[in-house]
Amino acid sequence: MKRQGIPELDEVRQWIESYVKRVANLRDERGRGVTLLALRDAIEEWLRFYESQGASVEPEWIRVRNFDALLEKNAVLFLKVIGRRRLQEERKQVTPNEERWWWWLDRKVEEERKKRLKRTAAILGGVTLVLVALYFFVFRLPPREQQYLNALTAAEQALQNQAFEDVLAHCQEAIAIFPERPIPYVVAAIAAEKLGRTNEAEHFRQSARALYEKEEDLFLEEAGWYFRAGMLKEAKGCIARVLQKDPENLTALNLLGSVYEAEDNVVEALKVYQLVLELAEKKNEITLIPVAKMKIGMLQLRLPLSLPLPSPSGE
């Protein structure tokens, strides 16, 4: 017999089935606001109630948690469908605690994005350090060359740590050793830009521009360092200028894929890496082919279940 205000357990089970169907079809949530999260609240409350009354609800918990994992995996899609601002506004009214993690999906997505960006930047930095070390031990660099590379490596590490004053100091050190080399000017311009020193940033940028034969080489270098600094919008702007002049520039396309990954834009990243693979095979760039294939495979695992795999042509 149904008690007043208390749903029957069978009714809670029906809510679970509704939750399962809605999580499996997140695109259909458009226009429904955060009602899915309210449904999840109700399931949590009443499953806990029946559990406290001695009911055996372990199978129900398992089913809910399996689809919780799917919701968490497809959090980016869910946020795109309902809107981050809408979620934040509703959350202010509901005031859920952090144990109700489904109300905090935007924070989870942002934390994952920062972790991926940091990992990618660390990998890029690690590759640079390995190359520097190999260069030193194999070719026995002269002291001035070693001092220059030490300063540039320190600037890169400071950039990743957002220590922009230190970046400028290390770049100035590198410039003093080899003023004819453009990279320290590029890095210094970005650090000055982050510090809000517009005139200083422009001075460094003009100095760098004068040292490059081709403007697209400058844009490509800037894009890589913007990416390391976490300035993804600026990185994409530089990449776009390179691709405008050279649409098949594999270095630019590969970096664009990394930017989309950092933005958690899986679909666009897949499209770019599929283009990279196609061009690498056409140009016989054998070192890029396995890298592109690996990226495509990893990204396909992150693709939301409700989205089709993009075709290589991007259609």
UniProtKB/TrEMBL annotation:
Coiled-coil stretches: none
Transmembrane listed as a keyword: yes
Protein name, entry field: Tetratricopeptide repeat protein
TPR repeats (start-end): 250-283
Regions that span the bilayer: 121-139
Keywords of this entry: Membrane, TPR repeat, Transmembrane, Transmembrane helix
InterPro entries in UniProt: TPR-like_helical_dom_sf (IPR011990), TPR_rpt (IPR019734)
Signal peptide (UniProt feature, chain positions): none
